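Figure 3 (text version): structure tokens given as input.
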């Protein structure tokens, strides 16, 4: 535990303060989710983890996570071991509010949320970044885009998502003195990978980023303003990548919507408890 911070009511002493623990996780219909955090508080968490060199791993979940959790019981078990599990998508935030779970806002590692402030901090603090994931060549292209936007950003290691041994990646991270890993391998592979990096002895900060590295192929700005302002990012992505995403939205998101509506109706009849705190030790 990092000293100097009381998490019970989410009290931050100052912008350079330290965090004790990683916040209460609640059971959101079978998927663990960190409650009560805003993006600025996640940025504080990052600063404090860097300051105290404790390491930390971050995941975000979109509505398709509930179908994955139903099909792969190890996935929510892995998420429970993360320091932060936050909502990637307005649909998750809306569902949480419907069930009276304290999820203030969407927080995702992309250019509309966490990515830019994290990379700015990496530049300011001289942190070394690795990009891991995607098809061969994707991470290299993403690194090129990021270096254009952040010329002083150090990215000494890029690695596609096709590698045999996690020990090899851990060795390379240590050899290059990597502080931050941005891992875009898709769910649930990227979560397993980040946990394996930690278990392999690497003590940095890792962010799961989903398709962010692929999105960077066209530049830092992927979503148009209207899609971001109206929380219609999923519509824009579906229009751009229909073959790859239609099944996720048609099947995966439907699973989430049905679960939320069913829980809302049964909750009104006092037959189900939603949002209970869970032990993540």
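Below: residues designed for each position.
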């Amino acid at each position: 535990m990092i000293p100097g911070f009381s998490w019970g009511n989410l009290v931050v002493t100052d912008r350079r303060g330290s965090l004790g623990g990683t916040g209460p996780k609640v059971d959101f219909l079978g998927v663990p989710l960190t409650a009560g955090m805003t993006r600025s508080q996640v940025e504080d968490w990052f600063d404090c983890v860097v300051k105290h060199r404790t390491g930390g791993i971050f995941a975000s979940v979109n509505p398709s996570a509930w179908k994955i959790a139903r099909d792969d019981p190890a996935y929510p078990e892995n998420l429970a071991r993360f320091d932060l599990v936050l909502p990637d998508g307005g649909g998750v935030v809306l569902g949480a509010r419907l069930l009276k779970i304290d999820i203030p806002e969407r927080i995702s590692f992309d250019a509309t949320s966490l990515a830019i402030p994290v990379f700015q901090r990496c530049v300011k603090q001289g942190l070394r970044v690795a990009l891991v994931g995607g098809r061969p060549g994707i991470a290299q292209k993403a690194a090129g885009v990021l270096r254009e936007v952040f010329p002083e950003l150090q990215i000494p290691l890029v690695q596609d998502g096709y590698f045999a041994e996690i020990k090899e990646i851990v060795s390379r991270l240590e050899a290059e003195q990597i502080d931050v890993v941005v891992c875009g391998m898709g769910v649930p592979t990227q979560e397993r990978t980040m946990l394996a990096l930690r278990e392999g002895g690497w003590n940095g900060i890792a962010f799961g980023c989903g398709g962010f590295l692929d999105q960077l192929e066209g530049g830092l700005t992927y979503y148009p303003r209207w899609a971001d302002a109206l929380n219609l990012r999923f519509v824009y992505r579906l229009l751009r990548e229909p073959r790859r995403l239609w099944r996720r939205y048609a099947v995966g998101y439907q699973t989430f919507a049905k679960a939320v509506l069913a829980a809302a109706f049964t909750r009104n009849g006092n037959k189900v408890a939603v949002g209970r705190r869970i032990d993540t030790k």
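Residues 1-21, 269-273 have pLDDT under 50 and may be disordered.
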